[in-house]
Design a protein that fits this description.
8 strands, alpha+beta, about 45% helix, 11 helices, PDDEXK_12
């Protein structure tokens, strides 16, 4: 940066500093501004205003009370609107247990009643010999610390921490990571809780098989067939790709209960799609899903349960503490990279 540019920036900073009020405007000044903008000032009017101020307190507090009352009335109106309100994650979790298919969350200490899920957990905890890149781990850890210290938004966590982390775990494998923050799930694959209404939860990132590395396989599977999709998402690009693990990311102050609900509903949609395409009685392989709330990463394994020829239940097992990861230091980031690497190896293996 040149000396001239530096002086210009410093001058601008000083101007900004001078423009920021040191103390809040006093009540008398606020009253004068109100007088000038409303009614003429007369002795009677002045007396009335002073009496109102003494009885009602600080004008600024009165304004705040009005805002709070307005917000409350809007909240009441939104509640009275029935389905227009956003239910709590705990309520949604309870309702999902009665949805179609049922979405059941299983504590890690419970039996998932799936040999494949138990075997997958054992695989993901077994060292595969992957040599993580220390420079990548340090870069991710530094970005994570900055996001946490500066209270950055969810978008920063997605692009500065999660995406480099997934790409570092993929390395040379024929996989790719895509952002699906705005991509919806096809309604026919969403869990249904009435004949009319479905649950739809979006996630942030997903890992899948890119076309350039799997072109022959995609061609044989009918990539260019009109209306043919390879997953449960309605997008001209992502919908045409085979998907593996999905990740729901939240900032450090994100809702710890909401994240597993979102990833669970998304994985249910993918299992429903896979079940609909199944041409044999072979069980579907388990899915892996992740949630990242700030620096803490949690892992879940989803399995489908068949009944009378339909997918009657999806079990979300986790979070699994044996797989927990953090990006708080280079050491912990390297450990998380190794866990994610095993998830990537499982993805191409299945």
């Amino acid at each position: 940066m040149s000396a001239g540019q530096n002086l210009t920036i410093l001058s601008w900073v000083e101007e900004v500093a001078r423009s920021v009020p040191i103390t809040p405007p006093d009540a008398d000044h606020l009253e004068k501004l109100t007088d000038n903008s409303t009614t003429p000032s007369t002795p009677a009017a002045q007396h009335k205003r002073k009496r109102s101020a003494l009885e009602g307190g600080n004008p600024i507090s009165q304004a705040s009370d009005s805002i709070i009352s307005l917000a409350h009335s809007r909240s009441v109106n939104s509640r009275s609107a029935g389905r227009s309100r956003s239910p709590s994650p705990i309520r949604v979790k309870a309702e999902l247990a009665a949805a179609s298919p049922r979405v059941v969350y299983i504590h890690e200490s419970a039996d998932p009643q799936s040999v494949a899920a138990s075997q997958l957990l054992a695989t993901l905890t077994h060292d595969s010999g992957f040599s993580e890149n220390e420079d990548i781990a340090r870069k991710i850890s530094n970005a994570s610390g900055k996001c946490a210290t500066e209270l950055r938004s969810e978008g920063s966590w997605v692009h500065k921490v999660a995406l480099p982390l997934l790409e570092g775990a993929i390395a040379e494998l024929p996989l790719e990571c895509w952002s699906v923050q705005t991509v919806s799930v096809d309604p026919q694959y969403q869990p249904r809780y009435t004949a009319r209404y479905t649950y739809n939860r979006k996630i942030d990132l997903v890992v899948g098989l890119p076309l350039d590395a799997w072109e022959d396989e995609y061609e044989r599977a009918g990539l260019h067939t009109p209306g043919k999709y390879f997953n449960h998402m309605t997008h001209p690009h992502t919908g045409k790709r085979v998907l593996g693990p999905g990740v729901k990311i939240k900032a450090a102050d994100g809702n710890l209960i909401e994240a597993p609900v979102q990833i669970g509903v998304w994985m249910t949609g993918l299992l429903r799609w896979a079940f609909a395409q199944r041409k044999s009685v072979k069980d579907l392989p388990p899915l892996v899903g992740c949630t990242a709330v700030g620096e803490d990463w949690k892992f879940y394994i989803a399995t489908g349960v068949e009944g009378s020829g339909i997918l009657k239940e999806v079990r979300i097992w986790g979070p699994l503490s044996d797989l927990d990861g953090r990006t708080t230091s280079v050491k912990h980031t390297k450990s998380l990279l190794r866990t994610l690497r095993r998830v990537m190896e499982y993805t191409i293996g299945q």
